[in-house]
Amino acid sequence: MEYSEWFEIYNWIRKLLGISYEKDVEATLILAQILKGLKPPLNELSRLIKRRKIIVFGAGPSLDPVLEDIIKYTDTDLLHRKYTLFAADGVTQALLEYNIVPHLVTTDLDGDIEALMWAAKKGSLMLIHGHGDNIDKITSIVPIIKKITSKIIGTTQVKPIPPLQNFGGFTDGDRAVFISHHFKASKIIMVGMDFGSIVGRRSKPWLKNNEKAWPAKKIKLDIAFKLISQLACKEKILIYTVSDTVPQCVKKVSVKEIHLL
Ligand SMILES: Nc1ncnc2c1ncn2[C@@H]1O[C@H](COP(=O)(O)OP(=O)(O)OP(=O)(O)O)[C@@H](O)[C@H]1O
Ligand SMILES: Nc1nc2c(c(=O)[nH]1)N=C(CO)CN2
Ligand SMILES: [Mg+2]
């Protein structure tokens, strides 16, 4: 997506959530400074996505039960070989419990940090997002991840400055879908991308159970739903979901059907 096209969407989101452009720019400068000197592994990102089937895991309430179901039909080694596994932030904790190392992780560093460190150690490529409301986490956590791995790509939602990138997308989950589209995935299969008004417990380390979405979170889930609908309809790409809430132009499939895709 052209930056000008994204910038219009970003401004729409900014108004909805009252986001500060200046703080987003500040976060971008700080993240770029911390990652300076690290060459973003874009070739590896492309190799993991281009012409491959991607499973994007979101942190909705259906994540854990569906993951259990998937593992019933496909053993975890096969899953790892057949698909590129793309975890949205806190989902990494669930994958850790099944010992499934995601190939890719999108995070704005508000998921379970231990799980993110585990993924970094195991070789996941970490797409770390900087925005105006996670500057404290950027400065405290990114230097630690940098000591563990060089497989880091910094992302931003404003104009990128090297070595950062902007592939479009807003929340960790829809950003994973946008990145998969940008690098020309053959198919994108969404698991746990439930949207709606219940936040899955994997979303935040402090959640013990699934919980009713607080007002800002509800707006973010609606934004994610809309962005994926727009992308699926406009770009005519093949996006599937196993969740009951189905964005426009996305096809609903059952867990059993995943391996037929
Ligand atoms: N019902 C849901 N509950 C939680 N996450 C969901 C749900 N449906 C889809 N998702 C996706 O899973 C991702 C999980 O990431 P995470 O919980 O870290 O959210 P986030 O993008 O950081 O947003 P926030 O800033 O509100 O925490 C979300 O970005 C969202 O796109
Ligand atoms: N400034 C700002 N940007 C964001 C925020 C947020 O809370 N503040 N949350 C996001 C969800 O992943 C993505 N981007
Ligand atoms: Mg997050």
Automatic annotation (TrEMBL):
InterPro entries the record matches: HMPDK_MptE (IPR027510), MptE-like (IPR002826), TPK_catalytic_sf (IPR036759)
Catalytic activity: 6-hydroxymethyl-7,8-dihydropterin + ATP = (7,8-dihydropterin-6-yl)methyl diphosphate + AMP + H(+)
One Pfam assignment: MptE-like
Entry keywords, A to Z: ATP-binding, Kinase, Magnesium, Nucleotide-binding, Transferase
Domain 6-hydroxymethylpterin diphosphokinase MptE-like: 33-196
Molecular-function GO term, any one: magnesium ion binding
Required cofactor(s): Mg(2+)
Top-rank taxon: Archaea
GO biological process, one term: thiamine diphosphate biosynthetic process
Assigned EC number: 2.7.6.3
Family that this chain belongs to: Belongs to the archaeal 6-HMPDK family.
Record's function text: Catalyzes the transfer of diphosphate from ATP to 6-hydroxymethyl-7,8-dihydropterin (6-HMD), leading to 6-hydroxymethyl-7,8-dihydropterin diphosphate (6-HMDP).
HAMAP family the record matches: HMPDK_arch
Protein name: 6-hydroxymethyl-7,8-dihydropterin pyrophosphokinase
Organism classification: Archaea, Thermoproteota, Thermoprotei, Desulfurococcales, Desulfurococcaceae
